[in-house]
Design brief:
single chain, mainly alpha, 2 strands, globular, disordered N terminus
């Protein structure tokens, strides 16, 4: 939800390996995840996370608002509310309290998984449609919060052959988003897929790669942010930078609670959003496992339980402030992998920036200046690095043993169906499409089921796969 072909050897932890106090990356016994950085570095690194996720946060309300019949100004209000609630959810994840929060550099934002069912629920119903959507999200989120302690126990079914497959699918599934941005983001707009848009994406991609190669230290770590700034400046004379958003934006705008009316509850809508919540919890579990390996703090059951509670609590709070369901943003995992900045407080700074953007629409519009083709060029590197992390994990999965290679082949093949053949499931019931249209979810389910069938059921321990789940029995040093 970064971009580098090079990975340090410690970027993906050995499954049963825990950080130790004399690790050269842990100063004074403090894990890099728990380190605080100088204020300027904290701000710029946090801003880089916001830049990477901004389009993903505002895109769902941009799609859902017009579909349910909201005006342009009301849709803009939804966008601000989504930024505000994404910031709250991110703070719950990174800082946490009690047993809520993964306490990893984990970014939360509006989930794309809910876009299709939300449109189906509220289409052409205006404020009533939004109220029904918010009511369904509220119920589904509270149910997810209750299920979190049980859902997290699925971590034992995520050995490297499963996690590597899912991480790879996360990266590959995100790449079409970057390709769409590179073409312009809106297939119905003039100039979509033009040589100008694609050239700007290519220029940005080259700039990011060159900066990663030529810069050192802190500047190398913020290469994505510098690339986005450079790409945006180049895009101004090219004519694809839109300054209209700044002129139309209000200076201050608080997302008034229940702006569209009190939540309404309809059973069909609630069932639909409960399915979306299960999909989000599945993807968040996979994302936490991926991020835990990248930062060298494997995610155990307690970490995942806290992360799922933060996901679901953030989603429950969101409709109160006119926001949608929140879940993990995989593109930011790629940013952590590329920059090697593992501090959760950096992402918490990004959460604060998101809240400010939600409260100050004119500030949010400045971030919106980044043209989608520029964001798409950087996204290719960001999302590709997630897939590279998955491939690294698969390299430790003993694919030569048993049927592990077959597990990967089937799970990746099925997970790629929504990408390679988007209309493949067009004749299936719409409720099933919530799951089937997510290659990450279908690939994850296939990998888990096949791993159980081939490596666990009907086998003696010495005959099965000797791999251990990618989490230690107890929390790693510096965990909760």
């Amino acid at each position: 939800m970064a971009a580098q072909p090079r990975f340090r050897n410690d970027a993906v932890a050995v499954p049963d390996q825990q950080p130790v106090p004399d690790d050269p990356q842990i100063s004074g016994g403090k894990h890099p995840v728990d380190e605080t950085l100088p204020p300027l570095k904290m701000f710029t690194s946090g801003l880089q996370h916001v830049a990477a996720m901004y389009a993903g946060v505002v895109a769902p309300p941009m799609i859902v608002g017009p579909a349910v019949g909201l005006t342009a100004k009301e849709t803009a209000f939804l966008m601000g509310a989504s930024l505000f609630t994404a910031g709250i959810a991110t703070l719950l994840q990174t800082l946490g309290f009690w047993r809520i929060g993964a306490r990893l550099p984990f970014v939360n934002g509006v989930s794309f998984a809910g876009v299709t069912p939300m449109i189906a629920i509220g289409k052409d119903r205006g404020h009533d449609g939004i109220a029904v959507i918010f009511g369904a999200i509220l119920v589904a989120s509270l149910l997810g919060f209750v299920l979190a302690p049980y859902f997290c126990k699925l971590v034992r079914f995520f050995p490297p052959v499963v996690t590597g497959t899912v991480i790879t699918l996360i990266g590959v599934s995100l790449l079409p988003v970057a390709f769409n941005w590179s073409q312009g983001g809106n297939a119905t707009a003039d100039g979509y897929g033009s040589t100008t848009n694609i050239s700007m994406a290519a220029v940005t991609l080259v700039i990011v790669l060159a900066l990663r190669k030529l810069l050192r230290g802190f500047l190398q770590q913020i290469a994505i942010l510098l690339g986005l700034v450079a790409g945006t400046l180049i895009a101004i004379p090219v004519g694809i930078t839109d300054f209209g958003a700044i002129g139309d934006a209000d200076l201050i705008g608080f997302p008034t609670p229940f702006h569209f009316g009190a939540p309404q509850f309809e059973m069909a809508a609630i069932v639909s959003m409960c399915i979306v919540m299960l999909v989000c919890m599945t993807e968040s579990t996979a994302d936490m496992l991926a991020l835990g390996k990248i930062v060298g703090r494997p995610a155990d059951e307690r970490t995942i339980e806290g992360g799922l509670r933060a996901d679901t609590l953030g989603s429950a709070v969101s409709p109160l402030f006119n926001g949608f369901m929140c879940s993990a943003f995989a593109q930011n995992i790629g940013l952590v992998a590329m920059t090697k900045v593992r501090s959760r407080f950096v992402v918490a700074a990004g959460g604060v920036i998101l809240i400010v953007l939600g409260l100050v629409p004119v500030a949010a519009s400045v971030i919106a200046l980044v043209p989608l083709p520029v964001l798409g060029g950087a996204g290719i590197v960001l999302f590709g690095s997630v897939a590279a992390s998955g491939i690294q994990t698969l390299a430790t999965a003993a694919l030569e043993k048993g049927e592990n290679a077959l597990i990967v082949a089937a799970a990746v093949g099925i997970g790629l169906i929504p990408i390679a053949a988007p209309e493949f499931y067009h004749a299936f019931p719409k409720d099933l499409l919530v799951v089937l249209d997510s290659g990450i979810s279908t690939g994850c389910v296939v990998a888990i089921v096949l791993n159980l069938a081939f490596n666990h059921l009907g086998r003696k321990p010495e005959e099965g796969n000797e791999e251990e789940p990618p989490v230690p029995a107890t929390a790693p040093v510096g965990a909760h």
